[in-house]
């Protein structure tokens, strides 16, 4: 169980970091290009959400194959672990987008 929580936490923070880092760097780039950074950061954060999820769970179709192969033969534990990793990664990406939206709405 400890290994699951460790991997789930890494999935969360990887997805969170992809969204947050991408949005912050896009904002910095928009400052250099003399465009409004707040709108660009929000747009990039929303667009990166699905890619952060993909990056956090491994970037391939393997997690889906694990779910399919184990569920077809009746082993639910590995499939549930993969679903858990995906959920934690989604939560991390969503929290990153929410943080950028919060900064967008409360920033100067």
TrEMBL record:
Entry keywords, A to Z: Membrane, Transmembrane, Transmembrane helix
Protein name per Swiss-Prot or TrEMBL: YtrH family sporulation protein
Species classification: Bacteria, Bacillati, Bacillota, Bacilli, Bacillales
Tree of life domain: Bacteria
InterPro entries, A to Z: Spore_YtrH (IPR025689)
Naturally occurring in which organism (per UniProt): Cohnella boryungensis
Pfam families: Spore_YtrH
TM annotation in the entry: 12-36, 48-67, 79-100
